Amino acid sequence: MPSTGDAWPGVMRVESTRISVVADTHEQGDGWGSPPELLAALKGSDLILHCGDLDALGVLDHLETIAPVLAVRGYPDPHETGERLAEETRVVEIDNIRIGMIHDIRLHGGEINFTHTVEFPRGNPRELIERQFGQPVDVVCFGDTHHEYIGWVDGMLFVNPGSTSRPNLRHPAGDLGTFVNLDVKDGVVSAEIRKLRRQ
After folding, report:
1. What is the 3-state secondary structure (H, E, C) of 11-71?
2. Residue from 39, 38, 43 nearest 13 by CA
3. Residue ranges of the domains in the chain?
4. How remote is the C-alpha of 142 from its chain's centroid?
């Protein structure tokens, strides 16, 4: 049966795994300040990936009221024992799709750049990404720039969900943030940038 919980004209989910990717939530205090628009938009997710700059661990607890969460640390983030929050990188495998997670894609030597697109000034993209994650990956999810992006390089899908709370300056003042939905089915992944709308 198709899932219609998150359907809108022209889009239908058919027995796929829905992974929502967020980053740069920058929650203060207890971390339970995620906008209600975000929580509503994440309903129906099977897994939430957080690409760092959460600022407070409570944001992970808040997101877990919707779906399980796996995260990587951003620069100011606290540490946490256990499997939920990785230090710098992690690889999550869903239906034979390997998703590499990192906060700042420019980490470790700056061999990868990101301004408005992913750039590899030198070296083989696949080799550089494999070195960064310790294994080959099919999808690279990253944050840090608050600039939402989806693009392909050398057969790898690169995803930056933007920020859920502080969108990039190219957004009009007062805009809510963005996140990305990944749908994985039978070893194939698709991606869509979603903009939060006021309720």
Report:
1. EEEECCEEEEEECCCCCCCCCCCCCHHHHHHHCCCCEEEECCCCCCCHHHHHHCCCCCEEE
2. 43
3. 17-195
4. 6
Question: Domain 17-195 carries which CATH code?
Answer: 3.60.21.10
Give me the pLDDT at residue 196, please. Answer: 86
Is the whole-model pTM more than 0.90?
no
Cβ atoms within 10 Å, residue 57? 18
Give the amino acid at 110: G
* pLDDT at res. 169: 57
Residue 127, sorted as left (phi over 0), alpha (psi -120 to 50) or beta, turns out to be alpha
Residues of the chain with pLDDT under 70: 1-15, 108-110, 166-174, 199
